[in-house]
Amino acid sequence: MSGTHGTETTAGPVLGDIPPEATAATGEAGDNAAGVAAVGRVARALMPTTGVISDPTELRTYECDGLAHYRVTPALVVLPETTEQLAAVVRACAEHGVPFVARGSGTGLSGGALPRADGVLIVTSRMRTIREVRRADQRAVLEPGVINLDVTRAATGEGYYYAPDPSSQQICSIGGNLAENSGGAHCLKYGFTSNHVLGAELVTPQGDVVQLGGLAPDAPGYDLLGTVVGSEGTLGIATTATVRVVRLPEEVRTLLVGFRSTDDAGAATSAIIGSGVLPAAIEMMDALAIEAAEAAVHCNYPDGAGAVLVIELDGPSAEVQHEYDVVERLCQEHGSFELRLAIDATERALIWKGRKSAFAAVGRISPDYIVQDGVIPRTALPEVLRAIADLSSSSGVRVANVFHAGDGNLHPLVLFDDAKPGAGEAAEQVSGAILDLCISHGGAITGEHGVGVDKAAYMPKMFTDDDLDTMQLVRCAFDPGGIANPGKVFPTPRLCGEVPGKRKHAHPLVEAGLADAF
Amino acid sequence: MTTVSLDAARTALSSACGDVTDAGPADAVDGVPATLVARPGSTAETAAVLQAAAGHGLTVVPRGRGTKLSWGRPPERADLVLDTSRMSAVLDHAAGDLIVHTQAGTLLADVQATVGSAGQRLSLDEAVPGSSIGGALATNTSGPGRLVVGTARDLLLGVTLVRADGVIAKAGGRVVKNVAGYDLGKLVIGSFGTLAVITDAVFRLHPLPAAERFVTVPFGTAEDAAALVQTMVHAQVVPAAVEVEWRVDGAGTVGVLLGGTPTGVEARTAATLQLLGAGAEAAETPPPGWGVLPWRDDADLPEVGLKLTCALSGLAPVLDTARRAAADVGVPLTLRGSGGAGVLYGALAADAPVDAVAAVVERTRTACTAHGGSLVVLEAPAAVQAAVDTWGPVPAIDLMRRVKEQFDPERRLAPGRFVGGI
Ligand SMILES: Cc1cc2nc3c(=O)[nH]c(=O)nc-3n(C[C@H](O)C(O)[C@H](O)COP(=O)(O)OP(=O)(O)OC[C@H]3O[C@@H](n4cnc5c(N)ncnc54)[C@H](O)[C@@H]3O)c2cc1C
Ligand SMILES: Cc1cc2nc3c(=O)[nH]c(=O)nc-3n(C[C@H](O)[C@H](O)[C@H](O)COP(=O)(O)OP(=O)(O)OC[C@H]3O[C@@H](n4cnc5c(N)ncnc54)[C@H](O)[C@@H]3O)c2cc1C
Q: Max Cα separation, chain A?
């Protein structure tokens, strides 16, 4: 299940051992030790000593990502500073058949950066240069370890910002965003990472350096970039990203709207989306999430609210005024009892603080919790939220909801106390049932946190064997040896057969003279 | 292949799909005669047709409505044209969710009519009238609206494909946000039918704007055009489109589209007139040529159709180089496109000498690549296609070949049509 957060990342495994389907993903310590040692030698020859880690205690710092109940100590960690170093390490991995896993900031919530016990973890945290902010081109060129929020910081002076804003934006990396196709509150209007990454330099699993896309749109040939974005590090490692930066809007209005129930707030969301108004963001929190946020950051949300919506409108002032009028009317028609408009930056920040701190804040009201991530059609919001409430009351497991309502991207937080026997299992069951609800409503098993190791077993609920097999044709084209983040995303690996050959000529039958009369 | 095996192939295809005919001259694909035409009515029939074709070693060229079949290189062979026109239903329009699910043979115009009745649109401009959904995806056509809403890759949510071996696969889904699995939709967009046959697709929709206004301003030089474009893209009026048109006679126009609420558009139009300065004019209707590719659609004597891309900062040198290159060889050139997005289309006369076309292509391509972009010859008479490198240099071509090799190891889908002979 997605992201179990203890209050501390040092807490021991919360949900027991790594499930059998995930062990295939992690490898056995000691396997191919000679290969790993050979990669280590290549790395040491190229990098400062602090850039190659093989001390067991130090290695353990990298044993998990944001999904802390899966832990595997990598055989080797390298921290390259340049594309050349990184490519050389990957080439060595390919040569010696050693699996590798890329890691940015390790905030992923699906175990995507979970290391391999028999492999190398390649960390991009020493590749953090913002190469250029090209105002005239509305682009920025970034190294993969650059922190998401730093892009906006570098561009605001020019009147620009980087639109995809995951709640983890103060720490997550652009490379991780690219690999996960991350979203954020403002993706409702501005799109996800895939809409904003226009070029990448990729180190392929063979260690070749290729340029995909670039400053101009529509590069000729297949859109390999579009396929690499969101592929969770299984098709290679991005060593630069060329991203779109967006002009800051003329006006921004942030509203906090209180409703008696999630039913009303969900209906208001559907009405706004259906009306033709496209807010920059519509985020929802239910009573339990509000309680947690109040306890943590005293955001002073409306008293007695069963749900709040945080709605942000942006754009040319003349349009924002109109949108505001429509949104206010629709909220009132759907039972809002209080509507606050932030009048300055401080008030706006306070509204967002409640929302952005909500995941962490839940730690105040529950010792352990699972962060679920699923998507439903937006019109199904009231119905699915009611079904989640029913699940919660029938199982006695509390569920807090804080999520991207405008996109239909749910983040139910399933609360439990691991000290109580059976509580973890009960929480897992509820969390899984929520995903089933998403699937039965025509939705998706992940909207932004990715599949990783966590949801690989759920892929067959959404896709047929043929669908998964076809996706893995791409995998075989990029990574015939299966060494790039193996065991993630797909429940069963596809055997790629022979390494792609160089056959570029006519069909063999034609060449053999057997089919030329047609 | 002997007559016997042609008969056997025809029989196998006919049992896969009720509508199989011998091809006529009109079914030729960019000058390459076809042998058979199959018109499957469903994804399952498409799969059966592709299986039968695989069993008989037939090459297959997918066809939507045949409006862009001359784009790309001619295929090496076209044994079977797989025509999607019987798959022409809009399967589901979920207005409240702003999504539409449609079969691939459906006309883009029919999709627009369906979703338009709910005040919505699929934000794919119809660059070529009469396009099917599958054809528009496979050629990745776009129009002025790409500036804000993007292109097919930004709108496609889910897709059903049939592989060369007849296996049906889907990717993506029916919701606006979804990161489960690889995004195969992106891979088939712009693939010119060389990877798989698209049988249906799910798109996100946008609300139709209540009001639209076009503002145009003349320009004289490439530098002026680029400066006007820069003014608009850095402004906060959020134009829906910023187009550049440079006619053969040297008359240039920058055109800006503003869409939104009536009062909003009025205020933004006033601001735009101010920004663009002397000579700017507002109108309710688009200027002539808006959103239409600049070359003439004439099957017998096709004009040369070019697609130029560059970083925005390269707009002036690219416009200038293209125009000088054409003038130096005495060939008239029209340029038109989404200047604000770094995309331009160029048209050269059909009777331009091959050497002259080659010279224009080469010089202009050098300018495009120097500014992060590319130049592709989309359409050209056969003599020109034979003499120039139509696709130009393609980074990562080896990886692309490997993708093709995985999806279509026997090279039976539109062989030779795409980059690097794929
Ligand atoms: C001003 C102007 C000029 C034009 N000039 C020309 C011109 O010179 N020449 C010309 O040919 N057209 C021209 N067009 C028309 C252009 O016709 C189309 O662009 C249209 O979008 C293609 O759609 P279609 O359904 O007709 O696709 P098709 O033309 O049938 O197919 C286009 C490509 O997509 C592939 N394809 C189609 N459907 C599928 C599918 N379901 N799955 C996978 N692959 C598929 C085909 O194999 C082919 O490679 C012009 C249009 C205009 C307005
Ligand atoms: C409190 C909190 C809030 C969050 N909120 C959001 C949110 O709002 N929206 C959202 O989408 N996510 C959210 N996340 C999840 C996470 O932050 C994102 O997935 C983020 O993009 C991960 O970035 P990272 O640098 O930490 O990547 P990591 O966790 O280090 O890696 C993630 C994946 O990317 C791969 N990878 C990393 N770098 C590269 C590279 N250079 N090339 C190729 N592959 C690479 C890894 O192998 C792994 O599969 C949240 C996480 C936390 C802890």
A: 82
